[in-house]
């Protein structure tokens, strides 16, 4: 779908073709952003889940950086189509790689293909076939123990999205997922990602593009650092540190904009991006599966993605309006939301590091 949509955009000669191509791009990206974290969570050992889950965000940031790099050369009225064509090249490479990838062993197990699950897991693990078989048996035991005691059904089957949204038995993970995935956006990251050139350009018009490009590089580097430490430090400490620093930096960005202090604005923006990349960037999508029953994870991932993109739309649409009305003071709103979110994380979000079962994660909550 991504390949087709990119080619459609490349060859488009009308506004309707562009709209349809963008619609297909959205469908393909929406599918990928649900499936990728879920697949990583299903195939990765518990002790590596944080590092491997963070690679999803690293890849997204690398994609943004690649696009911005190409835009430096091709973003003009003559060459813009080649930017869109690049998406089809990436899609073809991705398709060829996926042809060599086996189905998730956990999915195979959940659908009754035990022998196939053992073979698939054996290919993913460095040990013997017997060790892979034992891990499958451990999954089966964990699955049997992982029924929700609040559920009214004897068997815990994967819920439909509407059931997940409305059924009280999913309240704990649903509420935390909703809060984390929406607050990731309501803390204001895309005010910088979407409008960084415009925001910084008000004070440093000659350097805004270079600064925005440097921000993307920083985002990649710090997310890589996060992937290296997340399984040692834990999710909660990184989320708390990330959002707390973002509170302070949002206030300093506001001061830098309103008082036209260019040095303060640039430094605060870079620290803000680094703080986001160390915690609030990579953790939300990887933690969804860790907060959920294995059989609920796909629905929970879909729910979290919908929440996240609705919040992205709200911030993307309202930020220019808010900036027009409030100027630099609009960042004080992001600071307030980040402060409230940090408090919520401290009180309500369980640590998932090293915990293999739903009951382990939610013990004490």
TrEMBL record:
The record's section on SUPFAM superfamilies has: MFS general substrate transporter (SSF103473)
Q: Of which family is this protein a member?
A: Belongs to the major facilitator superfamily. Sugar transporter (TC 2.A.1.1) family.
Q: Name one GO molecular function term.
A: hexose transmembrane transporter activity
Q: Membrane spanning segments where?
A: 20-40, 52-74, 80-99, 176-197, 209-230, 237-257, 263-288, 300-319, 325-346
- Where does this protein come from, organism-wise? Saccharomyces cerevisiae x Saccharomyces kudriavzevii (strain VIN7) (Yeast)
Coiled coil ranges (UniProt) are none
The entry's keywords: Membrane, Transmembrane, Transmembrane helix, Transport
- Record PANTHER family: FACILITATED GLUCOSE TRANSPORTER PROTEIN 1, SOLUTE CARRIER FAMILY 2
Look up and give the membrane topology term: Multi-pass membrane protein
The Major facilitator superfamily (MFS) profile domain, residue ranges: 1-353
**Classification via InterPro entries:** GLUT, MFS_dom, MFS_sugar_transport-like, MFS_trans_sf, Sugar/inositol_transpt, Sugar_transporter_CS
Its subcellular locations are: Membrane
Pfam families with a match to the protein in the record:
Sugar_tr
**What is this protein's name?**
YBR241C-like protein
CC terms in the record's Gene Ontology section: membrane
């Amino acid at each position: 779908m991504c390949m087709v949509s990119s080619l459609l955009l490349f060859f488009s000669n009308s506004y309707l073709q562009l709209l349809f191509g963008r619609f297909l791009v959205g469908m393909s990206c929406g599918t990928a952003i649900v499936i990728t974290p879920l697949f990583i969570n299903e195939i990765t050992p518990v002790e590596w889940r944080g590092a491997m889950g963070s690679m999803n965000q690293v890849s997204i940031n690398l994609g943004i950086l690649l696009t911005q790099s190409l835009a430096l050369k091709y973003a003009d009225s003559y060459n813009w189509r080649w930017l869109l064509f690049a998406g089809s090249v990436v899609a073809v490479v991705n398709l060829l790689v996926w042809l060599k990838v086996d189905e998730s062993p956990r999915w195979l197990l959940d659908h009754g293909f035990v022998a196939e699950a053992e073979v698939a897991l054996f290919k993913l693990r460095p040990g013997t076939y017997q060790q892979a078989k034992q891990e499958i048996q451990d999954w089966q035991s964990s699955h049997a123990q992982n029924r929700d005691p609040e559920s009214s059904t004897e068997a815990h089957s994967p819920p439909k999205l509407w059931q997940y949204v409305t059924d009280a038995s999913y309240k704990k993970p649903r509420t935390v997922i909703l809060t984390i995935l929406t607050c990731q956006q309501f803390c204001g990251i895309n005010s910088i990602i979407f409008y960084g050139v415009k925001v910084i350009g008000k004070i440093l018009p000659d350097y805004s593009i270079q600064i925005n490009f440097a921000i993307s590089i920083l985002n990649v580097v710090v997310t890589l650092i996060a992937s290296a430490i997340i399984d040692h430090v834990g999710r909660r400490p990184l989320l708390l540190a990330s959002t707390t620093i973002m509170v302070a930096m949002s206030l300093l960005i506001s001061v830098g904009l309103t008082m036209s202090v260019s040095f303060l604005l640039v430094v605060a923006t870079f620290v803000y991006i680094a703080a986001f990349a160390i915690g609030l960037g990579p953790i939300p999508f990887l933690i969804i599966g860790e907060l959920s029953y294995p059989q609920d994870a796909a629905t929970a991932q879909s729910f979290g993605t919908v929440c996240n993109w609705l919040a992205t739309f709200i911030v993307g649409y309202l930020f220019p309006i808010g900036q027009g009305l409030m100027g630099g003071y609009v960042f004080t709103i992001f600071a307030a939301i980040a402060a409230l979110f940090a408090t919520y994380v401290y009180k309500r979000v369980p640590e998932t590091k090293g915990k293999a079962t739903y009951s382990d994660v939610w013990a004490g909550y």
